[in-house]
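FAQ: What does the model actually see?

It sees only this:
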Amino acid sequence: MEEERRWEEINTDCLVNIFRRLGLEDLTLAVPFVCQSWYRATLDPTCWRVLKFRRLDFMPWSNLSKEFSNRYGLNGRFSFSCFLKLCVARSHGEAIEVEFPLLFGASIHDLTFISHRCPKLRKATLPILQSEDEPHLPEIIGRWHELEQLEMECKPSSFQELVNNLNPKLNSLKMFGSFKNDDVSVIVNKLPKLKCLCLSKSYMQKDELLSILNGCNSLEELVVRDCVGFEVNEEVLKRVMHSGIKVFEHEGSNLVNEDGYDTDECDPLYVHAL
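And it is asked to produce this:
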């Protein structure tokens, strides 16, 4: 009878091909502790090219925090920064995508760290930062010369400088906030390759919307749902029709909010309430 093959004897390349499809929780807490061959396979940088932290629970009382602290001998001193540094070290500079937690854990120091250690990022989903940290964003993002997709929550105070520092080949931008003429101008002039622009839940007037439609010549998808400051009328629809845009989502956008006020407030809690 043919001897049964054992999991730990699987070719390392096959293991790596499997493990690179797993999430960070499995790669840090489960797979490395099965056997030595599986542990060695998880050290391959290709397993750590996509660093998605957003769906993980980094609260001190979470199962992830407790188990990570126990597995790595931290004696309860777990932090998001600790988890981040392990994942980034395993990537050996080969990470191409990072998705930060939205609210809890990540700091400007974490962003600075990953901007130095992960220079090949193509997609970045950034956390909400303290207002005093926002001026550092242009310098941080400017280190990602290959960045193609950027997603943020609220538009930062340093927005125009940030766009000036972006890779001009960026093809996707997503955030919400108050977008005035100068903000739209920098998008149009500095991001000529932009294909997807999502500004849902933002404040923007019709002139700014038309400027985007007239100036972003490569745009294929424009999402402006639940915005305040404009209504999509025949003029806008006609411009969309002649722009080459394939996807135009504008449901819920109005001249005024549901309380009857035309506003350019950029408070995240206010905008999410729309």
